[in-house]
Amino acid sequence: MSAGTSTNGAQHNVGRYWTARLCCRSIRSILAAVSLSTVWFIVNNSSVVEKNTTHMGAPSSSSTRLSSNLIMAHKDQYWTKYRSQNLPLGVRIAFQLRDTGEFGIRTDDPCYKEAEDKQRGWNRTMHLPPTLIDVRSARQWEAGLLDSASKSSVGAQKVEDVINDRGGRILDFSTSVATDLKILFLGDSVAAQIGRAFDSAATGVPDVVALAAAKEGGAHVNSTILPPNPRVVIENFSVGGMVRDCIFTSAPVRGGGAVAMWRVVKLLSMSRRNTGTCNSPQGGWNEQQLLNILEHKYNDPKRVEENNNNTVSKIGKFDAVVLRIQLGWMKPGAITHEGIIETIELCRTLIGAQTVVIMTINFTNDVHNKNEWKWAAKTNEWIREQARTINQNATSNGSKFRVLVMEFSDFTTQVHWANARTILAPSGSDETYEYSNLNPPNLSIPNYELEGEADFLFDRFKMWHRMNRHPHSIPTVCSRMGDKLVHKEENFERRQCERNAIMKDGLHWCMTSVGPRYHAGLSCLLGCVYNDAYEGSTEYEDSNSTIRGMELCERSCNEQFMSLRPIDESW
Fold first, then answer.
1. 409 Cβ contact partners less than 8 Å away, ≥ 6 residues apart
2. Is the Cβ–Cβ distance between 256 and 301 less than 8 Å?
3. I want to staple 22 with a disulfide (CB 3.0 to 4.6 A). Which of 18, 32, 348, 535 is the partner?
4. pLDDT at 535 (0 to 100)
5. In Å, how far from its chain's centre is CA 496?
6. Mean local confidence (pLDDT), 520-531
7. Contact indicator for 462, 494 with CB cutoff of 8 Å
8. DSSP H/E element including 387
9. Alpha-carbon distance 541 to 552, whole Å?
């Protein structure tokens, strides 16, 4: 990563390398350092890889680096022309963290759409709030809140030291992924947009490569240098004059694997088989859809490398399913424990998954009141307990099936909280804030998101027409409040705001902002299961320690990436 200005407007005095660290505590098997230019971030739960290591710069005085635990696996060709299984032995998924502007990610539904925003009467910033760029920007903003008396009591030099302390990125980076795993995203439109973004992280190329290819190819990019987009839309549907994906597959992605998305808007259930599909409120599915996904054929780079006469493979089955629970399409009362368990079981039996990753239920427009928010927290806790039970039972029965929990709710709640503190009031001043008395969350308190101070999440725009059945939560979508708008025809006054670069509409995300942490977190979690065949270790040789190790690995991945814990930098 070179010094310069990020696309979010923050100045970074950083040198060549950026090292990310997972706080693993007693986990001896997490490899937790990464160079943005040359080093894979490898996570596993069996043994530390000591070979092919390198020192990445002097450790920061404020943290302990794991810079000796680096595995070199980068080849220039790997990022440009080929999608072969060019991962280190025993590694099935890896990721790199990169400068925001370095890695070009294709996205089918960018958060900033000028025409669409104008049609809705929205203005939208393209910049992250200072609390979500990096530690330095956050501290500079915090220091700006201090009055002169507070600064005097702290001491001018100490305030300056805090501002200039070396700090890591929060959301201001991008992520690229390589895997030979076959991963299916299952759920509603949120699962669809996340699946598309993850696919882009696993198929895109760095901007520097794209620029070089464009230079060589002139006006037309040389297709022998840039790999074509392997995404194939198998089924789509029309809504509001727009065509949306119902099923897509993308293979091979970088590393030789596959990424797919299946839009099913209610929990997968045999009772909904052969009912309305894709965008139907019936939330159904059918065998032909599943067959179309599993029978999808693609040019397999492993067969090409082996000079096999038949280079075509089919997906066959998926290694992992990522489940987004479809709150909104389903009311809280319809999302039952039995329904979730049936979905997990069908992921195993119908889709062939060895691993199911469940995203915890996060705050959106579809959480209508505090009781529903409490229900979500209670359901998330049950999901955690159920995952542990399933994993223990599977191991006892000699099964490799695993359920992992992705703490998406915790991550996004912290994002909303950090954004809310910086929302400017409509006074015209850049120093007056809408939630001026909102303190940072106390993450040490269990269920902190349910405490009284979290009530700000329910500060919503008022419903003002029949299509506005799910009014947006202001802290989730706004960056600056505007003057109230009066509708003369309806004699109705409502608040308005400049939209932020985090949430598109109170339900869907700006994936260029939150996606990099999501992609790193998901890759990290899957690495807890699949990246453990190092130096003769066997995944299931000791079931008890393996389960404990996987759970500790899962916790570390969530603590690092499904949070606002900074990604440490070294230079």
1. 359, 360, 361, 362, 363, 376, 377, 380, 449
2. yes
3. 32
4. 34
5. 28
6. 93
7. yes
8. helix 370-396
9. 18
| Nearest in space to 183 (alpha carbons), one of 253, 91, 85, 236 | 253
Residue 239 has pLDDT above 60, yes or no: yes
d(CA 284, CA 278): 7
- Output the CA–CA distances (angstroms, integers) from residue 337 to 269, 369, 401, in the order listed: 13, 21, 19
Percent residues over pLDDT 70 in the chain: 65
Start-to-end CA distance of the chain, whole Å, equals 10
Query: Length of the chain in residues, anyone?
Result: 571
- Of 198, 195, 196, nearest to 185 by C-alpha is 195
Q: Whole-model pTM?
A: 0.81
Query: Which range in 46-50, 118-122, 259-263, 515-519 is most confidently predicted, on average pLDDT?
Result: 259-263
Q: CB-based burial of residue 280 (10 Å sphere; 0-12 exposed, 13-18 middle, 19+ buried)?
A: middle
- What is the Cα–Cα distance from 506 to 510, expressed in whole angstroms? 10
User: H helices of 283-352, where?
Assistant: 287-294, 301-305, 337-349
User: Pairing state of beta strands 312-314 and 297-299?
Assistant: antiparallel
Q: What are phi and psi of 356, to 5 degrees?
A: -120, 125
Tell me which residue has tokens 């890591």: 168
CA distance 197 to 111: 12
Tell me how far the alpha carbon of residue 79 is from its chain's centroid.
Answer: 21
390-433: per-residue pLDDT in tens?
Answer: 999 998 999 999 999 999 999 999 999 999 999 999 876 667 88
Cα(100)–Cα(452) distance, integer angstroms: 36
7 is written with which tokens? 């696309």
Q: Mean pLDDT: which of 39-43, 305-309, 449-453, 539-543 is highest?
A: 449-453
Task: Spell out a b/e string for 205-230, using b for 16 or more CB atoms within 10 Å of the CB, else e.
Answer: bbbebbebbeeeeeeebeeebbbeeb
What angle is formed at CA 350 by the lines to CA 344 and CA 351, rounded to 5 degrees? 80
d(C-alpha 230, C-alpha 54), whole Å = 34
Place of tokens 């995300």: 509
Cis peptide bond prior to 252, omega within 30° of 0: yes
pLDDT in tens, 56-97: 222 222 222 222 222 223 333 333 334 444 677 778 898 888
In terms of C-beta distances under 8 Å and separation of at least 24 residues, what long-range contacts does 342-346 make, across chains too? 342/267, 342/268, 342/269, 342/270, 343/267, 343/268, 343/269, 344/390, 344/403, 346/268, 346/269, 346/270
H-only helix segments in 94-249 = 114-119, 135-145, 148-154, 156-164, 189-203, 207-217
pLDDT one-digit tens code per residue, 467-524: 456 788 999 999 998 877 666 555 566 778 889 999 988 999 999 899 999 999 999 9
